[in-house]
């Protein structure tokens, strides 16, 4: 008896899927286990007519796409073949009771040393959407990053129109110099680091840069179709405006959480954030080619890369009609368009439906108030520095504490009760020790204190945190990222937070749920979250320069009483410092 065409087709599709995603091999009741191998290796790469050796995953820049589904388990073996220490962070993954897989060096783990490996093993629980992965040590994420795409469970659909095609677009920064040398020089001299030489779309700088017309990202589309663009800001130090000429975009998701759809011509995405947008192409192919542009939103007093990355949106038509097409360019806001950014961010709202609820804590167990901004450290004796004065270095702090990375991992120290060894202290202040007019005339003393200080909270504490920008060395926007949690953005405003009059205006009905939030330049933002994930969780500015200068802290969330509320022991291959 012959094999039916239907069975042949099923076998063909099955084999095709396996070849497309060979990582997905082990069946599970709740999902499948997907295996990946990340070989960290050096690769000669040329951009802007400049060739250099860069750190990559599997020789790719940007790195490979990791695709999974809600409920799946990811097992990623990282093998380090380069001289640098390395660790990989799965940015935005909740890591429920799997903090050993979160990745920030010296927080959750010691880095993977040359010639060693580590297996990141975690399950995607209750999340679907666009996230990304990146190196989490020094400035290696300049080249070590890639998309993490979490599809809905099988037979689940998007709460918006099914797209014809899905396209990840990663925003990045290219340095002609070695980014490690750039930050090391900055830390040595105390001055601001040299800025990047280009921005990139999927690793390509585009035609507005010298020698880069051949390195241009092109998005080829068909007329009358809906495309889902998965936008990821993986740049090191810059918030970016983004627009496509002649097309509006519908925002449907932020940080892997669905939002109430809204239409916009321009987006602002800060480092660490992801935004999914629907692009509806024109019914008929127009006689034009459309530029997509990204350039910085900049508020600080320091220098920044004031250049523009360009890609091309091109309609698929017979090649003969490509000639003499006009090239249309979108408009973008002014570099310092803070009011536009505040208005744009206020449009994000949770779906707040029965299926996708907004579980914002209605009551608060503990309130915190953290100032966020720059400051100074004294210059070492017998050295001239390049900070705000020749006797100071640039620093950054929360509540005037500049976070000092320990020499061993905080989570290991906590789990194995090595508190007495002086790795960290638990006295991070819940409020500024010396209140001042945060966004007004700056104080005369700009010096910060150094320390590896943590906040300790019991399991399941409901937390409200106000993050307040300061004008100590000039007001500046800061993207704050919290590991291990999503949080609800319940309020934001300009000037100093008013504890009497601002909280009654908080949105406790449908606030947006995120993992990275912009602290407005010269303003404040309020977030709430439920501390239901035991471990030690870093919170830091996602400008790497500010993180290198100490703009961060860590939350220690204690175990609960039940077995499923406790952090399991670490895996046997956890790296050692």
UniProtKB/TrEMBL annotation:
GO CC terms of this entry: apoplast
Chief place of localization: secreted
Catalytic activity: 4 hydroquinone + O2 = 4 benzosemiquinone + 2 H2O
GO molecular function, one term: oxidoreductase activity
Signal peptide: 1-27
The Plastocyanin-like domain, residue ranges: 41-154, 166-316, 438-559
Record GO biological process: lignin catabolic process
Enzyme Commission (EC) number: 1.10.3.2
Cofactor note: Binds 4 Cu cations per monomer.
InterPro entries: Cu-oxidase-like_N, Cu-oxidase_2nd, Cu-oxidase_C, Cu-oxidase_fam, Cu_oxidase_CS, Cu_oxidase_Cu_BS, Cupredoxin, CuRO_1_LCC
Alphabetical keyword list: Apoplast, Copper, Glycoprotein, Lignin degradation, Metal-binding, Oxidoreductase, Repeat, Secreted, Signal
Places the protein is found: Secreted, Extracellular space, Apoplast
Pfam families attached to this UniProt entry: Cu-oxidase (PF00394), Cu-oxidase_2 (PF07731), Cu-oxidase_3 (PF07732)
Cofactor(s) named in the record: Cu cation
NCBIfam families referenced in this protein's UniProt entry, alphabetically: laccase (TIGR03389)
Assigned protein family: Belongs to the multicopper oxidase family.
Role, per record: Lignin degradation and detoxification of lignin-derived products.
Designated name of the protein: Laccase
Organism field: Gossypium hirsutum
Gene field: LOC107885977
């Amino acid at each position: 008896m012959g094999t039916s065409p239907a069975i042949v087709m099923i076998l063909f599709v099955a084999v095709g899927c396996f070849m497309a995603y060979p990582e997905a091999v082990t069946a599970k009741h709740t999902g499948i286990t997907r295996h990946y191998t990340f070989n960290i290796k050096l690769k000669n790469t040329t951009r802007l007519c400049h060739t250099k050796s860069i750190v990559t995953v599997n020789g790719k820049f940007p790195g490979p796409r990791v695709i999974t589904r809600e409920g799946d388990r990811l097992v990623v073996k990282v093998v380090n073949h380069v001289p640098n220490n390395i660790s990989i962070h799965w940015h935005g993954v909740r890591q429920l009771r799997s903090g050993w897989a979160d990745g920030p060096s010296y927080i959750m783990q010691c880095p993977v040393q040359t010639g060693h490996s580590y297996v990141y093993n975690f399950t995607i629980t209750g999340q679907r959407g666009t996230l990304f992965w990146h190196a989490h040590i020094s400035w290696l994420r300049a080249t070590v990053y890639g998309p993490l795409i979490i599809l809905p469970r099988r037979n689940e659909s998007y709460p918006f129109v099914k797209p014809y095609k899905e396209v990840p677009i990663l925003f990045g920064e290219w340095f002609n110099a070695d980014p490690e040398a750039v930050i090391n020089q900055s830390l040595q001299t105390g001055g601001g680091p040299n800025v990047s030489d280009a921005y990139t779309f999927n690793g390509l700088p585009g035609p507005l840069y010298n020698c880069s017309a051949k390195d241009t990202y092109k998005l080829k589309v068909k007329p009358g179709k809906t495309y889902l663009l998965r936008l990821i800001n993986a740049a090191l130090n810059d918030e970016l405006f983004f627009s496509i000429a002649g097309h509006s975009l519908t925002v449907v998701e932020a940080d892997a959480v669905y939002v109430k759809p809204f239409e916009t011509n321009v987006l602002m995405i800060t480092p660490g954030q992801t935004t999914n947008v629907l692009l509806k192409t024109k019914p008929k192919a127009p006689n034009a080619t459309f530029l997509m542009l990204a350039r910085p939103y900049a508020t600080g007093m320091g220098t920044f890369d004031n250049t523009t990355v360009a890609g091309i949106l091109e309609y698929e038509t017979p090649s003969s009609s490509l000639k003499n097409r006009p090239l249309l360019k979108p408009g973008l806001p002014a570099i310092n368009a803070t009011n536009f950014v505040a208005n744009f961010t206020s449009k994000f709202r949770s779906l707040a439906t029965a299926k996708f609820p907004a579980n914002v804590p209605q009551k608060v167990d503990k309130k915190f108030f953290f100032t966020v901004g720059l400051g100074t450290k004294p210059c070492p004796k017998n050295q001239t520095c390049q900070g705000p004065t020749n006797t100071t270095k640039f620093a950054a702090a929360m509540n005037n504490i500049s976070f000092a990375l320990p020499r061993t991992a905080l989570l290991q120290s906590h789990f194995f009760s090595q508190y007495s060894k002086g790795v960290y202290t638990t006295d991070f202040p819940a409020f500024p020790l010396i209140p001042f007019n945060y966004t007004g005339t700056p104080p005369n003393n700009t010096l910060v204190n150094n320390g590896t200080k943590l906040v300790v909270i019991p399991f399941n504490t409901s937390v409200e945190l106000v993050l307040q920008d300061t004008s100590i060395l000039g007001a500046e926007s800061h993207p704050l990222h919290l590991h291990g949690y999503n949080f609800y953005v319940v309020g934001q405003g300009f000037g100093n937070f008013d504890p009497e009059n601002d909280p009654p205006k908080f949105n406790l009905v449908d606030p947006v749920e995120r993992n990275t939030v912009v602290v407005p330049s010269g303003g404040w933002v309020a977030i709430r979250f439920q501390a239901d994930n035991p471990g030690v969780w870093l919170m830091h500015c996602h400008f790497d320069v500010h993180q290198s200068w100490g703009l961060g802290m860590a939350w220690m969330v204690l175990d609960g009483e039940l077995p499923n509320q406790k952090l399991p022991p670490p895996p046997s291959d956890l790296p050692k410092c």
